[in-house]
Amino acid sequence: MSNALEVKNLSKSFGKLKAVQDVSFDIPEGAVFGLIGRNGAGKTTTIRMIMDIFPKDSGSIYFRGRAVAQDFRDKVGYLPEERGLYKKMKIIDTILFFAELKGKKGPEVKQKAKEYLEKFDLWDRRNGKLEDLSKGNQQKVQFICTIIHDPEFIILDEPFSGLDPINTNILKDIILDLRDKGKVIIFSTHLMDFAEKMCDNIAIINHGKLLANGKLSDLKSEYSKLNVSLVYEGDISFLTNHPIVEKIENFGRSTGIRVKEKHHIQELFKLLAEHDVIIKKFDANDISLHEIFVNLTGGDEETTEMVEEATHA
Amino acid sequence: MRELFNNRVIAVIKREIKAQATSKAFIFMTIFMPVLMIGLGALQYFVLSGAGEKSASVQIVSNNSTFLTLLEKELNEKNDSTDVSYQFDFYQLTEDQDIKDYISKKKEHILDESLDGILHVNVSDSATKVLSYYSKNPNNNNLNFKVRGPVNKVLVTMYFDGKDISEEDLSFARARTHFTGFRISEDEKIEEEGIGAGIVAGAFTFFLYLSLMLIGMQLLRVVIEEKTTRVVEVLLSSVSSKELMTGKIIGTTATGLIQMTVWTFPIIVAGMSGFIASKLGHFEISVSFGQMLYFFTNYIIGLTTYLGLFAAMGSIFDNDQDAQQGVMPLMMLIMIPFYICFSLFRDPSNSIAEISSMLPFLSIIVMPARMAMIDIPAWQILVALVSNIGTLLFIFTFVGKVYRVGILMTGKKPKWSEVYRWIKES
């Protein structure tokens, strides 16, 4: 499948801090693409460079083979991490204004605004001011503003942050619905569960550097070669510091064990049996995105709020 | 330049005009200001005329009964029925009575304010015209203005009475001098100058000052609001910061123009229609088409310049309090020419006003006010225009850069050195 967006060697520094370093990834047509990383890993900075909100220091971004320009921005619906709309503006005016910024106006857009507002139970309040809405409803209006112009690309920066479970589900359904319509969806998140359920392609960044990128299924099969997802009863402490074990991570319901060589998986199975560990599940083909992420970032617990601080300084 | 007028910029312009021109504060100021101006004018007239002061009782004392009789007649003739500010009574000193004794006798009344003062006029053969006023508040200009004319007239009449002098000579001697200003202008017409020119200059000064402040602060608040509510990031996903700033400044300038047109409308009507002008008499307001053209061109250039600066300032700060402090230098730039304009009322051709009417920033307020008062050589108008346009172009070489970086900054207040770095680096 051809690529809708290609990001090549993107870099950005704020003073001495290298927020994004030489990041490259491709987003295929029709993909739901997840940009995964901790807070401050450089996700927002990368997205802002794609949107040309921040000028990039170096690198290039191609939209269907051509360097991104205004025509790309016109085709994008962008929901930033930090939401915001004009508080004193009427809801319907707000939606129509953002549509007009994307070059869409007239009865067609008005009809569409009506449909979305009805879908979100907000049609009766269309002439009210945004500040009079609850936070959840304001988020809905913001989301309508993001997709009112029927964008081909939808970029959602941490779309689920601050949403209650009901609104999270509504938003999730809409994203899947948009995917089914063939839109390219890019979202950044630090919530691995959502990313795993919704994305078909991902890029993982940490400290501004790209650690992995590609189809989620490919990544999983690649990383699962050395990984075992284990559910057991008994004592496995003998595995700590064992020569065949690279790392053990406890994920609650299951334990992830990473071995050093592919043939070590068989040895691991034997070792467990020899030590009378009751094996309830031994899955050598399964690895969660969470595990991939932890493996890649090396369990590095250092909180990296540096990028945020640098951009906010 | 042309790519800046696309559908996105137009959408921003439309939103700005709609949001700003329909705000309650804007509507109130636009409609209320002319009413306030007329009200202030009336109040000033009221205060200066001495109307509304409580009635004061003054005793006029003299050694000469003829003088007192004639003065009483003169004051009664001059007094119109609406002026009740002074009540005079008259007392003639007897020959052996000394004024000092009389004053000490009346001292109590003056101190308990049953009598406000005693005005003594000694009529003697030595032909002096000395008036002495004894009061708790002796420096009373109102009383001075009120009585000096009639007293002089009576003294002159008495002095020449019985002398061989014609009535014509006498009336000449009695007559007061009249000071009238005539404006010499290029068009070879010599016109009697009323206080209309002063009114126009005052109004222009006040309107420009107020508009730059109000509209500037309005844009400042809008920019800060966009920054704090983070709506700016959504906007920047559709428009470039340059387009956003352009749309904002054009929209806000248009809002300012609406306001300024409403404010100056009475002056334009009164100044350009001969009928109304003739009814205004001494207050005749005369403004030419060229003058109004300069006024509005100057206003658009000036407002755009200041809006560029206000927008940049708004982008640097993310709360009203910090911004208020930050815009102090801008406020000073608007206030200084406002005060320079006061000097115009003393002497419209003073050199401070003349020089500042051609200097960047100052010219925006001083030149239109000067123009209303006196004829300005064409070269000065040209210098002012070039200086204003030059300032505008210079300002826009860096405000866009500050705005672009500033609107995405939150958190701690940037230092001025950092702001300078934004300009240098982008």
Description:
- The complex is a heterodimer of chains A (313) and B (426).
- In chain A, helix 3 (91-101) runs parallel beside helix 5 (135-147).
- Chain A has helices at 43-50, 70-74, 91-101, 107-119, 135-147, 165-180, 192-198, 216-224, 264-274, 289-297, 306-312; strands spanning 3-14, 17-28, 32-36, 58-63, 66-67, 76-79, 153-157, 184-189, 201-206, 209-215, 227-233, 245-250, 255-259, 278-283.
- Chain A is elongated and about 75 Å long.
- In chain A, strands 6-7-8-3-9-10 form a six-stranded mixed beta sheet, sandwiched between helices. In chain A, strands 2-1-4-5 form a four-stranded antiparallel beta sheet, covered by helices on one side. In chain A, strands 12-13-11-14 form a four-stranded antiparallel beta sheet, covered by helices on one side.
- Chain A contains eleven helices and 14 strands.
- Chain A starts with a strand and ends with a helix.
- Chain A folds into two domains: 3-215, P-loop containing nucleotide triphosphate hydrolases (Rossmann fold, 3-Layer(aba) Sandwich), CATH 3.40.50.300; 220-297, Alpha-Beta Plaits.
- In chain A, strand 1 (3-14) and strand 2 (17-28) form a beta hairpin.
- Chain B has two domains: 2-45 and 195-425, no CATH class; 56-178, D-Maltodextrin-Binding Protein, domain 2 (3-Layer(aba) Sandwich), CATH 3.40.190.
- Helix content of chain B is 66%, strand content 8%.
- Chain B is built from 18 helices and six strands.
- Chain B has helices at 7-21, 24-48, 65-78, 99-111, 141-160, 167-174, 196-228, 231-236, 241-272, 274-280, 289-316, 320-326, 328-346, 351-356, 362-373, 378-395, 399-406, 416-425; strands at residues 56-62, 86-92, 117-121, 131-135, 181-184, 190-193.
- In chain B, helix 9 (241-272) crosses helix 10.
- In chain B, 34% of the residues are buried.
